[in-house]
Design a protein that fits this description.
This protein folds into two domains: about 300 residues, Endonuclease/exonuclease/phosphatase (Deoxyribonuclease I, Chain A, 4-Layer Sandwich), CATH 3.60.10; about 120 residues, Immunoglobulin-like (Sandwich), CATH 2.60.40. About 15% of the residues lie in helices and about 35% in strands. It has seven helices and 21 strands. The chain has a six-stranded mixed sheet, with helices on one face. Strands 13, 15, 16, 19, 20 and 21 form a six-stranded mixed sheet that branches. Strands 5-6-7-8-9 form a five-stranded mixed sheet, covered by helices on one side. The protein is elongated. The relative contact order is 0.13. Belongs to the inositol 1,4,5-trisphosphate 5-phosphatase type II family. GO terms for molecular function: phosphatidylinositol-4,5-bisphosphate 5-phosphatase activity. This is Inositol polyphosphate-related phosphatase domain-containing protein. It comes from Phyllotreta striolata (Striped flea beetle).
């Protein structure tokens, strides 16, 4: 089994902009760190969501996505981002994993105003890596001390409502690993008859352990009313809400509470002869961030995933009980591209290393060298329109479907499309479940030489 390191962050930003450096929040150091996370999963709540902001965010990255991408772009690629009004979920992967990640899908649930408004609810992203399925949920549940039942109802609505388009993992808890983060808004039990000032004195004394015994979330988990499918490490940090914006001081308009949480679930025995496992490395808040009335919370985990099958000559395969399937890295292999010209028609060639089911939605995108997000294509063409089998054949005159050579034609490129680029092959279903199946070499696009 291989280890995969996952870093999670949840932050209710209270409609603020990322005016503080996010390096500490994402534990990014200037020193070379061999223990870099394989995946970053970042959940924001209350991202500014006025109509004009939503319109701009459809055209450009919102400020929080841009700030995270700017910090991670050298080593990571943004696999997916999902926005529901103020809710935002980002998933980044180390570049080296791109061809091992499959079936990226997303879902969302509105729970505000009886399901009609997206100011509360959840956004989720699921994916598979080496055949192992992961689901990430970012939720913002009903607020206020006395709305405990609403939070319970929100949770149960989310797990019942969300339906992914990958058959074996259509529900959240069908996945091998589930991580649930967000502003869950659970407060201290109402019967805990203490004022905000009294609770703060308890926090100053560092008596958070006895205070946590009155946590609403842990109470409903024990009763089986909500979140009982998940596990949470006891937080040893102070309550993360409510603070006076711009200060480290609690705002006594509300009783302090652990609103911001990160929980997980592992289905350890989903497979014969393979035991899945989670080790939690950290769980902490970041009090130096004062942009909103919440403090952000982060957690780091190591999970066990199967090893990829190595197909290179001379390398032995891992034992059969350590892999889930015949999982090859590159399903689409591009022939070397020497270069393209800015004007006129350009061509490329690829072969399939496995027999895959092509859909009308499959496409090839042209990306700049060192692109940092899967949605950053410069232009694209659908396979059904741009790719045709060549006349190449084996000695017998026949060629299997999965080894046939295909010619790709890009009839036009955008103006001023110069520099270094690559092609990326995307498999995509009608329901927009996306996998990256191949990436070409980096090649130059140059101005057409009229001479």
């Amino acid at each position: 089994m291989d280890n995969l390191r996952l870093y999670f962050c949840t932050y209710n930003v209270g409609t603020s902009s990322p005016e503080q450096d996010l390096k500490e929040l994402l534990s990014i150091s200037e020193k070379k760190n061999e223990n870099r996370p394989d995946l970053f999963v970042i959940g924001f709540q209350e991202v500014k969501a006025q109509p004009q902001n939503m319109l701009m965010d459809t055209l450009f990255d919102d400020p929080w996505t841009f700030a995270c991408k700017e910090l991670l772009q050298h080593d990571y690629i943004k696999l997916k981002s999902l926005r529901l009004q103020g809710l935002l979920l980002l998933v980044f992967s180390l570049r080296k994993h791109i061809l091992n990640i499959r079936e990226i899908d997303s879902e969302y649930t509105r729970t505000g105003l009886a399901g009609m408004w997206g100011n509360k609810g959840a956004v989720s992203i699921r994916l598979s890596i080496n055949g192992c399925s992961l689901c990430f949920v970012n939720a913002h549940l009903s607020a206020h001390d006395d709305h405990l039942k609403d939070r319970i109802d929100d949770y149960n609505s989310i797990i019942q409502d969300q339906e992914f388009h990958v058959e074996e993992t259509s529900k959240i808890f069908y996945h091998d690993y589930v991580f649930w983060l967000g502003d869950l808004n659970f407060r201290l039990l109402e019967e805990y008859d203490k004022t905000p000032e009294e609770i703060e004195r308890q926090i100053i004394k560092k008596d958070t352990k006895s205070l946590f015994e009155h946590d609403q979330l842990r109470s409903v988990m024990k009763k089986g009313e909500a979140f009982s499918e998940l596990t949470e490490q006891d937080p040893d940090f102070p309550p993360t809400f409510k603070f006076t914006v711009g200060t480290p001081c609690y705002d006594f308009k509300r009783r302090p509470a652990w609103c911001d949480r990160i929980l997980y679930r592992v289905n350890s025995n989903n497979y014969e002869n393979v035991t899945l496992k989670v080790d939690q490395l950290s769980y902490k808040s970041h009090p130096s961030y004062v942009l909103s009335d919440h403090k952000p919370v982060t957690a780091e985990f190591i999970i066990k995933i199967p090893q990829p099958i190595l197909k290179l000559q001379g390398l032995s395969l891992p034992p059969v009980d350590q892999v889930f399937s015949d999982y090859s890295e590159s399903v689409i292999e591009f022939e070397n591209i020497a270069g393209w010209e800015e004007e006129g028609e350009n061509k490329a060639y690829y072969r399939r290393t496995k027999d895959i089911r092509e859909t009308a939605e499959d496409w090839i995108g042209l990306f700049k060298e060192n692109f940092c997000a899967l949605d950053e294509y410069v232009t694209y063409e659908y396979i059904s329109k741009c790719a045709t089998p060549t006349d190449e054949s084996t000695g017998s005159g026949k060629k299997s479907q999965d080894s046939r050579k295909y010619e790709v034609v890009f009839p036009d490129l955008p103006n001023r499309c110069r520099g270094n680029y690559c092609l990326v092959y995307f498999s995509q279903t009608e329901d927009k479940v996306t996998s990256v199946l191949g990436i070409s070499n980096v090649f130059p696009i140059v101005k057409h030489d009229s001479d």
